[in-house]
Design a protein that fits this description.
The structure is a single chain. The protein is an alpha/beta fold. It is built from five helices and seven strands, in the order βαβαββααβββα. A hairpin with a 4-residue loop joins β3 (about 65-70) and β4 (about 75-80). α1 (about 10-20) packs across α2. The radius of gyration is 14 Å and the shape is globular.
């Protein structure tokens, strides 16, 4: 699925839509250049799940932030500063990713071999004044989620 997002608000709105359909155990892997909107989209997901918008920021230096939603915990990773799978192991990545709650992983493509078997890949690309989101389901759960998202919104694409 490809969606054109005209501005930051549209990027965050896509995140809220994904969050609306998220379930415990879901993993969203976000890729894209610096400034492409990964954290904005993450904020939208977290807010839809009940986290406070002002609490959601890029975990670039912390590596992982945890937000409490209404019913689910949201774990927000940024793997940009990590250099090896051993560093992932040191932070307990495997214990968090795909466990209870929702996991958001920025720069997931840096450690593809360490990702869960199933996840939703979201790639954000600069496109003129806006950005293009490419969503790819890795597994049956995420194929279902994309169908729900498509039925719930009219992206005009």
């Amino acid at each position: 699925m490809e969606i054109y997002l005209q501005d930051s608000a549209a990027t965050e709105a896509l995140g809220r839509l994904l969050g609306k359909h998220a379930a415990s155990g879901d993993v969203f892997c976000l890729s894209g250049d610096l400034g492409a909107g990964k954290t904005l989209l993450s904020r939208g997901v977290a807010v839809a799940l009940g986290a406070e918008a002002e609490d959601v920021n890029s975990p670039t230096f912390a590596i992982m932030n945890v937000y409490q939603g209404r019913e689910l915990e949201i774990r927000h990773f940024d793997l940009y500063r990590l250099n090896s799978p051993e560093e992932l192991e040191d932070i307990g990545f495997e214990e968090y990713a795909g466990g209870d709650g929702v996991t958001l992983i920025e720069w997931a493509e840096l450690f593809k071999e360490e990702l869960p078997e199933e996840y939703l890949q979201i790639t954000l690309l600069h496109d003129g004044e806006g950005r293009r989101a490419v969503l790819q389901a890795q597994g049956e759960r995420y194929e279902k989620l994309l169908r729900e998202v498509e039925e719930d919104a009219d992206f005009g694409n």
